[in-house]
Amino acid sequence: MPLAAVEPERYSELLQNKAERVCQLLEPFSPPAPEIVRSPATGFRMRLEFRMWHTGDALDYVMFDPDSPRTPVPVKAMPIADAQIQALMPQLLTQLRSSPTLRRKLFQTEFLAASTGDMLVTLVYHRPLDAAWEQEAANLRDTLRADFPRLSLIGRSRKQKIVLGRDYAREQLEINDIPYAYRQYEQAFSQPNVEVNKRMITWACAQASDLAAGDLLELYCGNGNFTLPLARYFSSVIATEVSKASTRAARENLEENTIDNVHLVRLSAEEVAQALGGLRVFRRLAALPRPIADFSLETLFVDPPRAGLDKPTTALAAGFENIIYISCNPVSLAMNLQSLGKTHCITALALFDQFPYTEHMECGVVLRKLSTSH
């Protein structure tokens, strides 16, 4: 996103225009009027990464304009970043510039902040990291912790990872007056806009409370972002995720929140479809307290990647009474609705502005089977 696109004074207008485009795209599926969830106009990004540009003695954070992808644009200010990141960026850059050891072949810097005050900085290098680097990095962390006491620092190079502190940030989200604790690991996916994320989860819980029947199957559960709060609305939850890092985080988050009705299984969405269709038997499902076919799986929750649901998963979804679908790509959502609209109708629609000043819009839809919706 070019920084020139960040226009806080026009935020309401830009959001309205974007919402109208999404509604026009989804109009053929006859959704109800959408709930539109705003983002803060500034200070909303909890995750950012920058290339580091070396020119003689100069060192800068840079971005690249899509219209001129080979021209680095130095970043002097980042108004969309969380306030903690905005405050840290110049201090970190000053320290990096003054240390030949830390700046040598530094390729990229990544920031991850949490509303708890936890912060992670990852420095990515095109060279091996040695004891001298580790000592300088420890000194850097000690210096920065005077203003950022919950800062951890990670160094990465090929086949190397050095952690000074922790490699995850502790986040806490209050959903319907209940606090949920999350570990968000460095270089693993987490929702970048914490305020909009809380509204997304609250909306999903409200939809679940209206359904509240049987057990839930959740695909693409990630670190348990939605799983933890949704679990209280169902007898049992089978949550699936293919990423090892995300599965690990989800297990830790379930344990830390003492949630015991979620059964986490490392399977892809396509593998779940094969298991439920009786096409394959997976040993990983043996850990369930009973065969998967014996669960009363009436509701499906999906938060797929930008490509949306593949054909086997779309066919699987068509068999559910209720579907709660969180989409990060309205175009792939519309493609999936061309199939799911034959078996289900949309009963709720929400638009979540996770990424202000871009074309991206997060959508939430609830689909109910036509035979039970009319």
What does this structure look like?
With 374 residues, the chain is an alpha/beta fold. The chain folds into 2 domains: 3-41 and 192-373, Vaccinia Virus protein VP39 (Rossmann fold, 3-Layer(aba) Sandwich); 47-170, OB fold (Dihydrolipoamide Acetyltransferase, E2P), CATH 2.40.50. It has helices at 11-26, 83-97, 100-103, 131-144, 194-211, 227-230, 244-256, 269-276, 311-317, 330-340, 370-373, and strands at 35-37, 47-55, 58-65, 68-74, 106-113, 119-125, 151-157, 160-164, 168-175, 178-185, 215-219, 237-240, 262-265, 297-302, 322-327, 344-352, 362-369. The chain has an 8-stranded mixed sheet with strand order 1-16-17-15-14-11-12-13, with helices on both faces. A 7-stranded mixed sheet has the order 4-3-2-5-6-7-8. α8 (269-276) crosses α9. The mean pLDDT is 94.
Question: What's the arrangement of strands in the largest beta sheet?
Answer: 1-16-17-15-14-11-12-13
Q: What's the story with the biggest beta sheet?
A: 8 strands, mixed
Radius of gyration, CA atoms, in whole angstroms: 22 Å
Number of domains: 2
Strand content range: 25-35%
Span between termini: 44 Å
Number of DSSP-assigned strands: 17
- Structural class category: alpha/beta
> What is the name of the CATH superfamily of the largest domain?
Vaccinia Virus protein VP39
